[in-house]
Design brief:
Radius of gyration: 16 Å
Structural class: mainly alpha
Order of helices and strands: HHHHH
Strand content: under 5%
Number of strands: 0
Number of helices: 5
Largest sheet: none
Helix content: 55-70%
């Protein structure tokens, strides 16, 4: 993946890496923020309720992004027993990450 980008335009590597880093960080933060909002402090207590990308990077997932063009971040720890409404908390926490990616990808015309 990166070899193809380097061959076409070396500056695309920086754009690619920045986009991945930002979207991954916002995605995982959204999971953590939703869990916190619905009553679970687990992610906050473990330092995962942050926009610091270092807290959200998974080594193998990052390597996979670079080599294969897809990957993942560190999963946000959630304890459903802490939610005020466990069913709603689980659903909203799960949807928060993908929803954040849709917001980031929204195109303004």
């Amino acid at each position: 993946m990166l070899r193809t980008l380097m061959a076409s335009d070396p500056l695309l590597i920086f754009a690619y890496l920045a986009a991945i880093l930002i979207s991954l960080t916002v995605h995982e933060f959204a999971h953590a923020a939703a869990a916190y909002y619905y009553g679970d402090n687990t992610a906050k207590d473990l330092g995962r309720l942050t926009f610091n990308p270092i807290a959200h990077i998974d080594g193998i997932g990052a390597f996979s992004f670079l080599v294969f063009g897809f990957g993942w971040g560190k999963p946000v720890p959630v304890n459903s027993l802490n939610f005020k409404n466990p069913k709603k908390g689980d659903i909203m926490t799960s949807l928060a990450g993908p929803a954040s990616n849709l917001v980031l990808a929204e195109k303004d015309e």
